[in-house]
Amino acid sequence: MELLDQIKQNARKQNKRIVLPEGYEERNIKAADIAIGDGLAQIILIGDPEQIKSDAEKFGLKNISKATIINPKSHSKKDHYINMMVEIRKNKGMTIEAASKLIEDPLYLGVMMIKNGDADGEVSGADHATGDVLRPAFQYIKTAPGVSVVSGAFIMIVPDKSYGENGIFVFADGGVNPNPTDKELAEIAVTTAHTAEAIAGIEPRIAMLSFSTKGSAKHELVDKVVSATKIAQEMAPDLMIEGELQADAAIVESVGQKKAPGSKIAGKANVLIFPNLECGNIAYKLVQRLAHAEAYGPILQGIAAPVNDLSRGCSVNDIVSMIAITCNQAAGKK
Question: Residue 261 to residues 52, 225, 243, 249, 266: CA-CA distances in angstroms?
Answer without folding.
Answer: 60, 19, 13, 10, 8
